Each structure stands twice: as C-alpha cells, then as structure tokens.
Amino acid sequence: MLWWAKLPEPIKISNGIELYRVTYWTEHRGQAILASGLLSIPRGGRLRGVVSYQHGTNPTRSEAPSAPTLGEGVLGSAVFAGGGYLFLAPDYPGLGASTGTQPYLYSPTTVNAVVDLLEAARDVTKGLGEEWNPSVYLIGFSQGGHATANVQRALESLNDPALPVRAAAAVSGAYDLARISVPFALRGTSQAHSLYLAYIVRAYAEIYGQPMESLVSKHYAESLPRLFDGTHTVDEIVAALPRAPRDMFTPEFLANSESGPDRWFQEALAENEAYNWAPRAPLRLYYGDSDQDVSPADSKFAAKSMRERGGNVELVPLGPYTHNESILHALPRVRRWFDDLSK
To answer: Which residues of the chain fall short of a pLDDT of 70?
Structure first.
C-alpha cells in the first residue's frame, strides 16, 4: 500500500492490521443519526495511542474510508495502524453507512461524528479484548484539516481524561471560511473550486433552512441536491459544474451586499471557522507552497491568530507541493512526530 501511494520517504511498519467498519450513533442538529467509520487495529504489541484521521473532500458514499477503498482510509491504516496505533477514520454523516445530506464543513455535526467514533472505539476495542490507550492523536487533510482543528478545540473543552489530545496535525486545511477559503475559491478557475463551493452551498442551504436561489442560479439550485446525493462520483459532479465557479452564482451574491439575500451564508461561514481559539496540545499546520485548491494563506492566518491567543501552534511549510501532494509529503513527517511523542 505504501509503495502504491508513492510516499516521498519510507515509513517503518511493525504490525499487521485488521480493518473493521464500525457503525455508531451520533447527533446532527438535535437528531440521533447512524454513522460509520473505519477502525484499524494493529496485530500484536501494546497500542502506542489512538490516531483519528479526518478525510478530505469526498461526496461519494461508496468511497468513504470504511468502504474501504484504496484511498485515505486504507493508506492511513497502513501508515498508523501499521506502526502500532489504533487508527480511526470517520466517514462523516451522509457517507458510508449513513444517508442524508452531508454536512460539509459544518463544525457541530463533524465534531460530534469524530468524538462519538472515539467513544465507540473504546467499546469496540474492549469487546475485541484490546487494551485502550487514551492518548489521542489527530490528523486531517483539506476538509479534514478544518475538522481536526475543531475536534481538538472540542476535546480540549470537554477535558475528558479518557480522551486527552496528545497532538494534532492539520494538512492544507480551510480555517477562515468567510474571509479566506470561500473568497479564494470564488476567484479560482478550477473545477475543484466549483466542487467545493457547490458542496458547501448544498449543505448550508439545508442546514440553515435557506433557499439556494439566494446564492446560485435556478439551474444549479435544482441540480445540486441530485448531484450531492451520495451516489455521484467527483468526476460526474464536476462535469455538471462550470469551470469558473463564479458562473454558478447570482449577480446579487457576487456583488457581496452586506444586506443582500446571501447575508445568512456569510454568517454561517463565520460560525464554522476553525482558527479563533488557542490549542493547548501542540497543533501543527502543514501546507504546500504550490497549493492552488486551498490557499496557503489559510494556514498562515490560522497559525498567526492562534499564536496571538497564546496557542501551542506551529506552522510547517512542506515545500513546492500541490494540494494532493501535500498530504503525501506530510504523512511521513507526522508519523515521525507522533512516534517521538509516544515513546
């Protein structure tokens, strides 16, 4: 698996692994919903800790980590469970065994899904006769970088001695949605930007009970719920979206009126930020200098904001790498860092 992924440097593997799909209950806007995630257990030896991996943007239910496909879930299992860690990868609501609209970049439900999987994993490992190691390590990529920062904030607020955060690594994440992430995507010319923006418009319109027509043209207001029903692949979705993301939106939205019909969207983006706090456990924000999907300015601003609040944060440039390259270059570094902390 590590050979297939073409990681830039070797990773030491000490354990075989067993992969399980875990289904568990979590909460979305006050309602109990069934969610799923991947749990990978290293064979033999003492657990070094628990690694929770928050995956990047994926609108396809069958490609969620617990499927599992030869993607983030299995690769993460090889890197971390193969090194002696219990490895978890939540699918997020709306993916995997879960149905309904995916709450994309909606912090409350995402945090619930990650924390509830951590708690469910304690029961699963006990039932399998494994000893639980309460040291929690967090890592996430892209959408998962945003999730990782907010999960660390939530766990440190909970202060649960059974789930102490030892360290967190967020790679190429979106943190200031209102002022950096969404404006950067709107200026883009890539269909990746159209995908991100369409995904968040679809999710936020339903979550906040607002009409999509206040943001996008009638054509896209009608087509986005079908495209993001969990059955369509990324390629199928981007084929139905404009190359220039601005072409989806109404003139009123693009004018960015402070009192216009899209004001709810700006407020929702601000509610779901991931930078306005001070981490206690060490948090490293990794980014690629050549990332054209998520601006490096997001990581730089988040680190600065957290530092100003006294946060334990480090900004880590990976080099001249693109968005998808950044996670491959970050994984060996993060694994070494976690290994040093778990000695």
So the answer is: 257-261
